[in-house]
TrEMBL record, chain A:
<dbReference type="Pfam" id="PF02653">
    <property type="entry name" value="BPD_transp_2"/>
</dbReference>
<feature type="transmembrane region" description="Helical">
    <location>
        <begin position="188"/>
        <end position="207"/>
    </location>
</feature>
<dbReference type="GO" id="GO:0005886">
    <property type="term" value="C:plasma membrane"/>
</dbReference>
<feature type="transmembrane region" description="Helical">
    <location>
        <begin position="84"/>
        <end position="102"/>
    </location>
</feature>
<feature type="transmembrane region" description="Helical">
    <location>
        <begin position="108"/>
        <end position="129"/>
    </location>
</feature>
<feature type="transmembrane region" description="Helical">
    <location>
        <begin position="141"/>
        <end position="161"/>
    </location>
</feature>
<keyword id="KW-0812">Transmembrane</keyword>
<dbReference type="GO" id="GO:0022857">
    <property type="term" value="F:transmembrane transporter activity"/>
</dbReference>
<feature type="transmembrane region" description="Helical">
    <location>
        <begin position="315"/>
        <end position="333"/>
    </location>
</feature>
TrEMBL record, chain B:
<keyword id="KW-0762">Sugar transport</keyword>
<dbReference type="InterPro" id="IPR003593">
    <property type="entry name" value="AAA+_ATPase"/>
</dbReference>
<feature type="domain" description="ABC transporter">
    <location>
        <begin position="4"/>
        <end position="238"/>
    </location>
</feature>
<keyword id="KW-0547">Nucleotide-binding</keyword>
<keyword id="KW-1003">Cell membrane</keyword>
<dbReference type="InterPro" id="IPR017871">
    <property type="entry name" value="ABC_transporter-like_CS"/>
</dbReference>
<dbReference type="GO" id="GO:0005886">
    <property type="term" value="C:plasma membrane"/>
</dbReference>
<keyword id="KW-0813">Transport</keyword>
<feature type="domain" description="ABC transporter">
    <location>
        <begin position="255"/>
        <end position="499"/>
    </location>
</feature>
Amino acid sequence: MSSKQQFQLFRFILALGISLGISMLIIFLVSKEPWTAISYLLLGPFGSMRHFLSIFAQATPLIFTGLALSLCFKSGNFSMITDACLYISAVLTAALAIRLSLPFPLHPLVILLLAVVMGGIIGSLPALAKLYFKANELVTSLMLNYVFFYLGLFTISKYFADREAGTFASLKYAKTAVLPILVKGSKLHLGFFLALLLAVLFSILLYKTRFGYELRLSGSNPSFAKMVGISSSKVILLTQVLAGMVAGLGGAVEQMGMYQRFNWQESPSYAWDGVIIAILSRNNPALVPFSALFLAYIRVGADIMSRKSDVQNELVALIQALLILFVTAEAFLSGWEHRREVKESLAAADTALPATEHRPATASAEPVATKADLVEATEPAATKAESAEANGLVAATADLVEASGATAEKSDSVDAVKTFPEPGKEEA
Amino acid sequence: MEVIAGRGLYQIYPGGVLANEDVNLSVEKGEIHALVGENGAGKSTLMKMLYGEIAPTKGKILVKGEEVEFHSSKEAMEKGIGMVHQHFMQIPSMTVAENLVLGTGKSLFVDRKKAVEECKALSEKYGLQVEAEKKVSDISIAMRQKLEILKALYRGAEIFILDEPTAVLTPQETEELFVQLRSLREKGHTILFISHKLQEVKALCDRMTILRDGKTMGTYGVESLSEADISRLMVGREIRLDIEKEPFSPGKKVFSGKNIFLQGEGGKAILQNLSFSLSEGEILGIAGIDGNGQNELCQVLVGTLSANGAELQLFSQDFSAFSVQKRQDLGISYVSEDRFLYGSAPRLSLEENAISRSYREKALFSFGLLNSGKIQAFTKKVLSAFSVKYKNTKQDVKSLSGGNAQKLIFGREYEANPHLFILNQPTRGIDVGAIAFIRKKILDMRKNKKAVLLISADLTELLSLSDHILVMHEGRFVGYLDNDGSLTEEELGLYMLGVKEDSQERIGEAYEQ
């Protein structure tokens, strides 16, 4: 693990600690039985097998959307069409689960396949609009989300609604169109492992293939990617189609794994949860399942807490918000990081730089350097005298480290100006 | 009397870049004090600390003997420090007078009439002629610079920091600026003049402080040092690179480009009818003031800009219609003018940046997937062949010094073993060691019978490396010169400024059938 990764891990754990700490403080302020509430929040999910397994069930759709959005953000595209992809694919799943009659393994397989295609098609729309009309993908995707949401709602209530249900619900799905439950009495279904598999595949795609490299390069510095000869249109389109396909799959899996009727009268917030997951995972697919499980754990805990104590489960939103605030705040702990860098670079400078002469008057007596001298002179081995001097300066470094603490805050603002914005974080 | 001073100043940027190290500076009232040093020596960093834009990591700043700790440039302004940035801090859509008073008044609205009066009065008083009612977008660069000085004066500045003010000026405008600066000095103002042009420092300044590698090399009266002494203090040794270049013996023709035209927005011609060719073992230099079409020419050759009708050939194969990557595969390498914008992805690792050409090659794959061991080995090979100083191959390119980042980029393109190597400002703003290293590699290319197109703003570099030099002015070639040892920088300068121009026949010789 590089020192940078160590720093990021440390920062994440600290951010988590602080956000949980603040949340607990609030529990103490509002609750008459704070200890009960806290213990249900943190330990409740481990209280029974059913609760424990529901963490995995709840994490499943979050992994799908988290992967979709990580991929988009990594490539520097801020399409939120994931929402529509998921919703429409879920509608399609409902339609096929109701109307299609096929034997068991075939029925869900056909549905999954068609849902993936549907997700890909819808995912491509903002990308195409961007390529052909230079329309900002964030705006078009958010608008299209409404279009597709109402289209889906219309389809269900017009053609598939169960008029006897008394509330908004579709007809029941065929018994053949279900994903197998893995542990009896729980909601853990096959979809979770499908999601894990996808996380692995996406990691490979992103870090082990040509396209993944092109995607990362385009996302990190589009101007450089252009010079390298990477087609930005290809990256934009393919990324968003892939993201749409994953989201579509997520919608189908969720419907067949968790529901017997379609009753999403409001669009589920999985796409927005996906943004949270992508941020927590720093757009790294390998970390997406962990972030999703963590979020699901907090939610299951909060759910139990709200049922068994006097604290509402809206507290989850608070923990989430605080966590994201600290994880994304570039300046959080950067003073600490900067101090370490100061120490390192001073130590390096003292040993690497040759001693410089302050002898202008005599300097002209030096012979003109030849080519060979010039090249060699640039990497001189540190002489004994220099390293002795270096030791002296290392001691001085300690003061410097302290001094920099006071100025850390100011240097942060310098950083903001100096460094390039990282797309995934700034605009997400 | 000492008006502004820095004592033991350190500045370490995030990422661990040591920009200033134990810097000492002392400026007397009423002098023009030069701050000289190479690009990247830490001049701008020092200025930013004095002007309160960044806080020193360690060290003291004294203004009129009083220790200060600025939290913003506003506080520096209140102490009478004014800065003229290289990139003007102005709003182009507003008038000169509006820009002058912007952000100073207490009331919510700008009194335009009063602003114009004040602008005229101030302009009169200091002899800095500006047109108060014109929009900034409509005035010349020189006038914008005067406005920048007026802005500082308006805010009560007594100490002026000018960051390479002559970089954007013609020689005549520079002369005029010097007259104005001298008159400011007579009025008792103090000027800190940043430059790396020694003649200007000699002509204008009283004393100078020399910076090298982020350290002060001492303060001297300008009379006491010769230009050779100054340059030695600036760079550590005289950079003489009229190194044993083997005699020019061109081989087969490698590249030829014919009728390269390029139109910009609004139909303005950016490149006009450029034709030239390159042979094996030839270094063709392109001189010209920045922004005369050099970058666009590179982009046309690399394939990121398309010039309709141009005929581009490599070993007689027409590649005008090829994509960027197909051109690379054909044997074209390119080092761009801006290493962190076009040359690398600064936030990605050394590995990810090193493979930007080879990521398409089978050599880095096993079982159809990129192999991290192979990537690391390849990266290390490039890094060590170009003696890049690094900690590990996973660190960000951003954390390398300019010279090391440039060596990585240069090395990546060099390792592709191209037939045509296009170098756009290959040594701009990097340390002397890296410059020498890269120049040596360029000559190695020549020895290995490669064709090198060298675009550089550094005339010494062009004169010491090139076999021929083409001069660009406003998108045209205006001179084709044999670099036979008698060519001087002054001569080149005349072409670059458009004063001198060769005949069409002579320029046509750059293109051989």
